[in-house]
Amino acid sequence: MIQAPSNNELFFLKWQQRKVSKSQVWEELQHQGWSADDISATWKDYAEYRLDKRNTLGWTLMGVGGFLGLISCVLTILDAVPGMRGFLMYGLTSIAVAIALYGCYLVMESPNDEDA
Predict the structure, then answer these.
(1) Closest Cα partner for 108 from 73, 71, 61, 64?
(2) Given 15, 50, 108, 113, which residue has the most CB atoms within 10 angstroms?
(3) Cα separations (Å) of 116 from 23, 24, 40, 70?
(4) Taking the alpha carbons of 16, 20, 22, 26 in that order, is the dihedral positive or negative?
(5) CA-CA distance, 43 to 35, in Å (whole number)?
């Protein structure tokens, strides 16, 4: 069964697409009659939502990079296509490491724009 997204998740998706700042969200929700406590709680939930999305992408990229590296290693060891040995050993491995490291960056480095 597919769950319908909550009202806040719809706000979050819209805000993420527009790349709004905290002040823009504050003004938008004040115009809708929200209290200051509700706005603060919603912004905190939005920051957590963005961090969760970032972490999910990071872990996915680390997995893809690791898998690509494994494939590169196995194909290099098997030497199935001798003419592509250099590409498999250096090119594909470099791509896999770059993808995995970018995933690590997304997971390990926290964005400082949460309070902006």
Answers:
(1) 61
(2) 15
(3) 8, 10, 13, 40
(4) negative
(5) 12
